[in-house]
UniProtKB/TrEMBL annotation:
A Pfam cross-reference name: ADH_zinc_N
GO annotations of cellular component type: cytosol
Species of origin: Acrobeloides nanus
Name of protein: Enoyl reductase (ER) domain-containing protein
Keyword Amino-acid biosynthesis among record annotations: no
Coiled-coil stretches noted in the UniProt entry, renumbered to this chain: none
Keywords: NADP
SMART domains in the record: PKS_ER (SM00829)
Amino acid sequence: MPEINENQVLVKVKAVGVNPYEVHIREGTYPLLPELPYVPGGEGAGDSFSQGAALGVAYITAYRSIFFHGHGAPGQTIFIHGASGGVGIASVQLAHAKGLKVIGTAGTNEGLKLVRENGAEAVFNHREKDYVQQIKEKYPNGFDIILEMLANQNLNTDANLIAKAGRIVIIGSRDMCNFDARKIMSKEASITGVARLLTTTNEQYLEWGQELTDLWTQHKINPIVGTELPLEKLAEAHELIMNPAKTSAGKIVIKI
């Protein structure tokens, strides 16, 4: 049994969440690589196991993206580009709970249904060729905030959809972006990124964690576990998280 000091807690981990950045670290493509040897994993739970494992990184990332970088406030519109994954659903729930108007996209019927059920007022299928035109027709003034899960494919689209002085927050990207910056300049919009919460302070973790706990106990947020796998199938979990069409909407969790 490990020894701990008065400022630590000892948790017998029963479930852990799986995140895309862990795959990028394993492949050596993440911009901030840790020193070796390295044990992957940034979230786990020892009580209310699967939901607890789904709460950590996804909801802190969502909170930081919406309210710290996106400056979200009640009544604003937020567009979540890829809303049916772990961070996406967390963002839908949090934004809805805080009084923002939520619009999202998903690529499957299951995902579309899940995003709508968790607080989005409108959901679009990003596999349809004309989905951007559908969005423009329904929301001609654009969005105050856009959360982007796949910037290498969608950043130019986001620049077309963002409102004047809007904020685009990049949560995920799998390659370099070919991007026309003039679209952002003409609207005086801004783009910022989130990288594995490396600049999140202990004080922020405590403050945001307490607020998330309060929202959870008030049943205003509810972690959605889409896929559960045993530890011996961790490689499969990494494959699934990089291929969302192959798995259920929601968070991927490893049971220990």
